[in-house]
Predict the 3D structure of the following.
Amino acid sequence: MTKTAKAKLFEPIQLGAWNLKTRTAMAPMTRCFADEQTGVVGEDVAEYYRRRAADGIGLIISEGIVISPRGKGNPGVPGLYTQEQIDAWKKVTDAVHREGGTIIAQIWHVGRLSHRELAGNLLPQAPSAIAAEGMIARFRQPYDTPEAMTTEDIQEVIGQFAQAAKNAIAAGFDGVEIHGAHGYLIDQFTYDAANQRTDRYGGDLAGRLTFMKEVLQAVIDAIGADRTVIRFSAFKVDNPTYMWDDPEAALRTFTDMFKEAGAKIIHPSTMDFTQVLADGQNMHQLVRKHWDGAIIGVGNLDPDTAEKALEEGYIDVAAFGRPLISNPDFLHRVAEGEELVVYDPKTHLAELI
Ligand SMILES: Cc1cc2nc3c(=O)[nH]c(=O)nc-3n(C[C@H](O)[C@H](O)[C@H](O)COP(=O)(O)O)c2cc1C
């Protein structure tokens, strides 16, 4: 596994507004190392991202950063809505830029996947007042029954996403990724187990995508399509096996909406890149049929599968998650043909290395 054998992975690429050193991305990963009260990150977080930039990762997508106190679903998750939070992120983005890296903020609202004690002592917000089943792993409490959002609440949250995008730029981030995946607020609007609305934010899939579309448009208006990535998925953290009845038709509805909203870069998320969804094709292959903009690929990729997907053109950039937690020098190891440290949540989530 040498650098020459991974020619595509190590190729520079222009992705939207960004000149990336390599066709690699660090997938967004929640680490819960921010101050629990203030949501402010420290020097340890700056050093953690700096190391991945120094390794040559093309695009660092930050851990999910919440856009409001009510958007929070885990203790220790950082925010991007106070001046103190913005100032602290500036140290992180400066450290990454000094290494010649590119970093974008993943902006996040967890919706119903929370508890009032985490969500600023207010009930979590969601499309409908339906509780998710299960427990908040890092909080050892069941999910609260959320409050159904009014049209005014929806407009307010769209405004918070746009403001968080502006705050990200003020904090020195090169752009944002909107977290529209994994069963969090934006994704909750997209499926009927969480969205029973009868207004224009409900109904068929196209209607249920209205909220995602309006958030996307507001963020693009705020900072530009060249600096905006949208992430989406079928699976939900509280419903990991969820799949659309007709995956290709669903993905077509998503990509049609992305085109209407003016998006340029999308990040289809799956935990298994090779999982076949229809006609012998995986999620990224199906998306590529209907989308000629940029695609970030992810889901248990290794350097070989990533190189192949880049060569075949299904994806433009390959994102790695867990291997980048356990290997701060991931690309160095790949280039030198050294073995990768196998990710082990017990040891690797306990500290930032
Ligand atoms: C510890 C951990 C935290 C994660 N946090 C987030 C997150 O904040 N936002 C998000 O969109 N995905 C999150 N993910 C999913 C990853 O971005 C990625 O899609 C997933 O781990 C699959 O990639 P991998 O197989 O290369 O790890 C997280 C994954 C892990 C392991």
User: Anything to note?
Assistant: The longest helix spans residues 151-170.
